[in-house]
Amino acid sequence: MLGLRYPTEVNLAGDAKATLQALMPLLKTKSDRSWRQTVESNVEEWWRIVEARAMNDAKPVNPQRIFWELSSHLPDDVMISADSGSGTNWYARDVKLREGMRASLSGTLATMGPAVPYAIGAKFAHPDRPAIALVGDGAMQMNGINELITIRKYWKDWADPRLVVMVLHNQDLAQVTWEMRGMEGDPKYEASQDIPSFRYAQYAQMVGLQGIMVDHPEQLASAWSTALTADRPTVLEVIADPNVPPIPPHIDLSQIKSYTSSVLHGDTNRVDMIKQGVKGILAEFNK
Questions:
Q1: Residues 223, 240: contact at Cβ < 8 Å?
Q2: Which terminus of the chain has a lower count of CB atoms within 10 Å, N or C?
Q3: Strands (E), the chain
Q4: How far apart are CA 214 and CA 74, in angstroms?
Q5: What is the phi/psi pair of residue 206, to 5°?
Q6: Is the pLDDT of residue 189 over 80?
Q7: What are the tens digits of pLDDT across the range 58-78?
């Protein structure tokens, strides 16, 4: 499975620390720093693009901005878990981790529903550290709602009561929807992709937790701050736009053809898809 998502020249399977230690003696110091400087420049440019994309308008909240705003509010010793879904893209791109933080995804990057159970497990292992679960509404309806009952049962036993469950509320199994568009050229199939609305924050309040609902981007900073300073676990429900495309750093011709095909075949969200796609591409050129 190595190299599945991005082409690689040499695949090394092993514990990251041990593998890097084995490679260290093979490295030779070079006086020419141009390659490293190119990498640093590209990374700096990429962060600028990511921020520009996060600040684009959406209906009502750009999901990228949720994760971008989180970075500046992360506690130093936070433990973060994320689900498999469209949120995985924003988690990987927009969240800036610092030394001392712990972060995880599902083991094979495809299992739905691990974020909240992972966060609960992390709290039992380290009850004195804050935890954050980043969850799509598909995974939240699969098992996250039930896990809130587990959190309600045990949270008072934790030295640090902070556990934030952020729910991307977009009523779309968006990762698969975008894969259908970008890989197969098919329009969104609403019968399988649409999911019902649910009041996640309100439900959290019903079981004795804190619930915050956000439906405007300017509310995000204060919402993260409130959730991460609360005296109890919090569900942060954000009404997010499902039509913001997870545009990869490099787009090939086959993806463009598939995307165009989904539009031409009558995707019900094609107008918003095109608008958000254009915004994302233009972000690369805005200074």
A1: no
A2: C
A3: 79-82, 102-104, 131-136, 163-169, 210-214, 234-239
A4: 18
A5: -65, -35
A6: yes
A7: 999 999 999 999 999 999 999
- The percent of the chain in helix, strand and coil, each rounded to the nearest 5, is 50, 10, 40
Closest CA to 177 of 161, 192, 162, 165: 192
Gap between the terminal Cα atoms of the chain: 38
β-strands 234-239, 163-169 pairing: parallel
Rounded to 5°, angle at Cα 140 from 136 and 144: 135
Beta bridge partners of 102: 79
Identity of the amino acid at 169: H
Contacts of 115 (CB under 8 A, 6+ apart): 81, 82, 83, 133, 134, 135, 139, 144, 165
Query: For residue 167, is it left (φ>0), alpha (ψ between -120 and 50) or beta?
Result: beta
Dist CA 139 CA 136 (whole Å): 6
Distance CA 4, CA 172 (A): 25
Q: 């981790």: which residue's tokens? A: 97
Name the token pair of 152: 């309600």
Separation between Cα atoms, residue 64 and residue 54, nearest integer Å: 5
pLDDT in tens, 106-126: 876 678 899 999 999 999 999
Instruction: Return the axis-axis angle of helices 34-54 and 63-71, rounded to nearest 10°.
Output: 120
> Rounded to two decimals, what is the model's pTM?
0.86
Q: Could you tell me if 145 and 209 are in contact, meaning their C-beta atoms sit under 8 angstroms apart? A: no
DSSP H or E run through 270 = helix 270-282
CA distances from 200 to 136, 150, 213, 228 (A): 11, 15, 8, 18
Preceding omega of 60 cis (within 30 degrees of 0) = yes
d(CA 160, CA 51): 31
Question: Beta partners for 234?
Answer: 164, 210
Q: How many CB atoms lie within 10 A of CB 132?
A: 30
Are 116 and 143 a contacting pair, CB within 8 Å?
yes
